[in-house]
Automatic annotation (TrEMBL):
The gene is tyrA. PANTHER family: PREPHENATE DEHYDROGENASE (PTHR21363), PREPHENATE DEHYDROGENASE [NADP(+)] (PTHR21363:SF0). This is Bifunctional chorismate mutase/prephenate dehydrogenase. Its EC number is 1.3.1.12, 5.4.99.5. The keyword Isomerase applies. One of its GO terms (molecular function) is chorismate mutase activity.
Length: 381
């Protein structure tokens, strides 16, 4: 009796193709390993010559060139840019560990008040990578404050918002040439306190990022010049070498902007979370039914509640100006709700267009920029 020949399925050719893909993946990993070796050499040269790890002009030119080359070769330019940006992010982290040129070689030791806190630890690590002698003054060390601070070249205050002014006022007399700096997310109160407590150079800093960043490349640090700005030039240049972007601002303008960027935004996220738990729907079901953009919004809401509630309470409640701003937000929410209650479609469209005109060309850029974020969020499902 004859047996029919077994039908040829797709598994054999699929297996061969998958083997070839695996081999290509190995080649890609070999090339990435070589790229990191070259990055290490670049980092060493930057460290020797005092160059920042982030060079925006070089990055823009390289991305533009690679996108053009991708188009010539029939490859998706967005794919090539995504791969390169991920490689560069790893490169910045790698270069950071190689150290930095010390911009103030003759500076005496640095004391970080609150150096055991997360942000204090981050700045302490970056300063040590730059060759500075860094000490920490924490809650249980105040009996040694005179000893630690008597000959300090810089004192950096990194304590919770509600403690900042009282800690500054508690500082003993510092050397006249000592640079006094704070890292607080409000600036008017701490700046006034530092200028009153110390007759020497003063600088206000606000790192616009959390302490969990791997490196400072592309991060923003706001700074408020205080007394004797020339005395803090070395520190600002040091921060540039770490890869951060610096933005000068007055204390008043800073605090108003932070009301919008931090206090109002965090409060609105808090209210979103409160609304979600009162509606009491299954989070898994919401995620399963989410479009990429709603999933990303849920991620950003949930991210807040995975962090320290005391920190966010302090940020939101740090100033009566924040309360006034949030009350204005509440009034404008009510204004928008009235349009909905009235069923006034034309009014909604008119307000929508008015807001779009305020955003201007940024609206189109933001839409394009968000596409890569949405694609990444969708890929993480």
């Amino acid at each position: 009796m004859e047996h029919p020949e077994p039908s040829v399925g797709p598994e054999a050719p699929l297996g061969e193709l998958r083997d070839q893909i695996d081999a290509v993946d190995k080649q890609v990993m070999d090339l990435l390993a070589r790229r990191l070796e070259l990055v290490a050499e670049v980092g060493e040269l930057k460290g020797q010559h005092g160059l920042p790890i982030y060079a925006p002009d070089r990055e823009r030119a390289m991305i533009a060139a690679r996108r053009a080359e991708a188009e010539r070769r029939g490859l998706p330019p967005d794919l090539i840019e995504d791969v390169l940006r991920r490689c560069m992010r790893e490169a910045y982290a790698h270069e950071k560990n190689l150290g930095f040129t010390r911009q103030a070689p003759d500076l005496r030791h640095i004391v970080i008040v609150g150096g055991s806190g997360q942000m204090g630890q981050l700045f302490g690590r970056m300063l040590r990578l730059s060759g500075y002698d860094v000490h920490s003054l924490d809650r249980d060390d105040w009996d040694r404050a005179d000893e630690l601070l008597s000959d300090a070249g810089m004192v950096l205050v990194s304590v919770p918002i509600q403690d900042t002014v009282s800690v500054i006022e508690r500082l003993p007399t510092l050397p006249d040439d000592c640079l006094l700096v704070d890292l607080t997310s409000t600036k008017a109160g701490p700046m006034a306190a530092m200028l009153a407590a110390h007759p020497g150079p003063v600088l206000g800093l606000h790192p616009m990022f959390g302490p969990d960043v791997d490196n400072l490349a592309k991060q923003v640090v706001a700074y408020v010049p205080g007394r004797d700005p020339e005395a803090s030039t070395w520190l600002l240049e040091q921060i540039r070498l770490w890869g951060a972007r610096l933005h000068q601002v007055s204390a008043a303008d800073h605090d108003h902007a932070m009301g919008l960027i931090q206090a109002q935004r965090h409060f609105a996220t808090f209210a979103d979370g409160l609304h979600l738990i009162r509606e009491d729907r299954s989070l898994d079901e919401l995620l399963a039914l989410s479009s990429p953009i709603y999933r990303l919004e849920l991620i950003m809401i949930g991210r807040l509640f995975g962090q320290n509630p005391e920190l966010y309470a302090d940020i939101i409640m740090s100033s009566p100006d924040n309360l006034a701003l949030i009350e204005r937000y509440h009034d404008r929410f009510a204004e928008a709700l009235e349009i909905l209650r009235a069923g006034d479609r034309e009014a909604f469209i008119a307000r929508f267009r008015e807001i779009g005109e305020w955003f201007g060309p940024h609206a189109g850029r933001f839409r394009a920029e968000s596409q890569s974020l949405l694609a990444h969020a969708d890929a993480q499902r």
